[in-house]
Automatic annotation (TrEMBL):
Superkingdom per UniProt: Eukaryota
Higher taxonomy: Eukaryota, Metazoa, Ecdysozoa, Nematoda, Chromadorea
Organism of this sequence: Pristionchus fissidentatus
Single GO term (MF): guanyl-nucleotide exchange factor activity
Designated name of the protein: Uncharacterized protein
Domain spans labelled DEP: 82-144
Amino acid sequence: GDAVYDRSLELDQFGNDMEFTACDRTASLPQHETQSIVEFTTAMGLFSRLQEVGRILQREMAATAPTMISDRTIQGRHYMESMTGIDMVDWLLQLTLRLSTTGAAISRFQISGMWQALLEHDVITHVTSEQHFADKQLLYRWSHRPLVRPTRETAEDSADELTSAIFLLTTIGPDSLFRMILAKPASERTPEELELVYEELLHVKALAHLSTMVKRELAAVINIETHTHAGTVIFHQGDPGACWYIILRGAVDVSIRGKGVVCTLREGDDFGKLALVNESKRAATIILRDDEAQILRDVEANTVRLKEHGQDVLVLEKVFTPRGAAVQGRQESHCTYSVMAGLAEKMLEYLLETRIDAQEEDVTSVNPTLQDFLLTHPIYMPTNILCHSLKKYYTRHPMVTSIFPSADVVIQEDTEQILTAKRRVVTFVALWVKTLGLHYFLDPSANSFIEELYCCVLEDAQSIPGMSPVLSRMKSCREARDRVMLSLSRHSQIVLDCGVYAPTSTAPHILPIDTCRQLIRHPDASSFVLAVRMDKRVAEVIEMCRPHIRSGNSQETLVLTEVKSNGERLVLAPNDISLPTMLTLNGKLFVSTREEVDLLVTHNDENGPIPNSTSLLDLYGSAEVATQLAFFHMELFHATNELETIAQVFGRDSFPGHLPSNLDLLLRRFNEVQYWATTEVLLTAAPKRAQALRKLIKIAHYSKQQGDLLSLFAIVLGLSNVSVSRLSLTWEKLPSRVKRLFAELESLLDPTRNHRAYRALVAKMQPPFVPFIPLLLKDLTFIHEGNKTFFNGLVNFEKMHMIANVIRTFKECKASSSVSGILHRDEKPDSQLLVRNLRVIDDQRRLLDLSYQIEPKMSKR
């Protein structure tokens, strides 16, 4: 499928495997027209592929370690051609490290998972038919006897075959380990196994609403049920409810007496929770739809509710392991609480009284729950309200008693307690500044609060003993404000010059004062250029256009319309902001009356390059192009603040000072590189077309090695565009090694198990690297639309925790201390200047026309 980031599609194209049913299950997004991130065309199924992997490894083992496979006698029993689990792990570990190009560490535990995957698919067997692989002196043997030795004809490709085999095993190994661990009794699971189960639970859609702590609790007790035959009943309508179920593989039918089957639940869906919540009997009968189904089973976690005047004001979850800690055993755990929901002001009070004191001496790191609040508060508690609440807490009078009986301090008529309240607020603000950085000072309310609070602290320091450390910390905040304000006082810069990056632009962090020189057209094809500030709304830009309108009626109602390269017309809303960065690649902006909108058109020669255009691929090698793409994309990514993602998903005009302009450019660039890959193949002359395709695949490979996942996935998606994927004659000219490499890169976009292949790749990477931004936004969109922000008048803080996790992931990819050296280069090579603006065709119909000219419709791939 053709997956292109477009705001109007709301990210549904990226692996939308979410469904909506009317039965008891976790809230999820409505079902839209499903469209995978890429269409896979692999001929072999997983079983066949693993059989081939087994033959490759068996051949390599026979060539490099022939003594591993030998006849053994244990306790009087003779086992032919067997090998020990320990030797197998040793050998495969060394082979994996030898073939690795990233230097990423891999453990014996992970290697065991790779062997377990082969055991599950009958590539190897245990000599006594034991059901799992163990890194012990247990005996295993290959299921197939032929041991073909490498010949000179096959040795050249053996390294590539081995690399592909190891890549597949590292991808599916965690799944096999996951199933093996869940088959064990909970008491036998080791800390390492519990950690792997926890990581796998992060990818289960039905658990997305639960916090880290609860997921770690589940890792210790969750079980797996495997059912061989379709038609098996999990439970009947009317049975008592004792468990909550999640489908790991397969599907189930939900049947209600008198109605029959009302819906079908599939992988990632859950059922059975309603009976637990309401303490009622099962409302439906659940029947397996598929053979070999696998279902996770567990029970609910505990909650604690705090009330005022008979109403809930704060809901906490009671857990026995602190957030982020590995489970080391039940006997070592202790009870703690995490916020699930609450009134915004009560959540703030709870955080001030239970999370701040532990950070008095160290503000270099921020408590995760507190950080969740700081990153997400604009969604439910505007900055001016938060500042007002902090000021109120700072100036609170004695004899105000906390509603939290478990808090370590109850406010009393005591100078020490007055000091404690003031110290907590100042520490909170210091942590707030640390967490948001520059974006804290872009918010007018937060910026002015620093000066207001500083004046209060300065005055209190004259009369309250012990205020010296508080004043010192407040001075540090004020000094940080002065430094940032100095940097923000720079001159306005031109970011885009008539739709392309300005030659002098260095991709700085875009500020509201920065401008774009925007070409605006009249219906008669005449045009003018307007300097548009980033913070201007469409309604303001329209007023700026009026002096250029030749109509005699100065009060005439005007609209701004984008005409895309495919002819689609989009009338922009008056409140749209950061207009120039919102436009599509070859989109044209018109100012007209509403009646003239249907007459607006563009021409093909304005919408991208034409055949025989000079190609970037002809000028530079694959490695050089990949390097310069990575450098430019790291610039764009580093300039993009993580809070822009919230503005993009929740509303571009909803958060003062937080314009998503940098994020716009990053997404625009993703589309640009994607269409560039498609365009290059289709416009290259026939003799060089296969060479161009091969070169683009190599650029994608180099991009993966350099941590530029934006280029990697944009190019892979561009080459998966139907206009390129259908060119069977061109693909047939590629060496098998290159086609295999592309299949491996393509497999990283597999959307199953919540894009598990991509997430496993990212988990192995060391920052800085540029992540797959559209998938991050898809995660945020799913969280936002699948979970209510308020529930019974309380903020759903579990939703905020999930949002904060995505934002942290975005931020952690930067590792700013490492990025700073990369971004500062005095001179840019010519290749860097060329990759900044790629000429592309983004009209799918035109791309298909070019494709049919190359290979007519009767040709099939």
